[in-house]
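Hi support team,

I submitted a single chain yesterday and got back a structure, but I'm not sure I'm reading the token output correctly. Could someone confirm the output below corresponds to the sequence I sent? I've pasted both exactly as they appear in my results page.

Thanks,
R.
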Amino acid sequence: MVNGKKVPQRQCIGCGEMKNKKEMIRILKTPEGEFTVDATGRKNGRGAYICPSMDCFQKAVKGRGLERSFKMAIPKEVYETLEKEMEQLG
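Hi R., thanks for writing in. Yes, this is the structure output for that exact sequence:
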């Protein structure tokens, strides 16, 4: 039996699909309570994953995916900042 390396999977907060962790963008809530896009995927804090498409981002906003992931209300300014950061990555 060949023991292949297990690829970590994460669920997109927009579309709900399971994909490889490396293909996705991590949205991070720092211990100070700030929200940011974590390009490296290694920063400290609670993370939620999203596909690198604006469609999934819009679904996450509409379906309150971030609010469910972090179990708190997300201010509108946070969504606007994250949208700008996602556009820069895409």
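A quick pointer for reading it: The helical segments are 54-62, 65-70, 76-89. Let us know if anything else looks off.

Best,
Support desk
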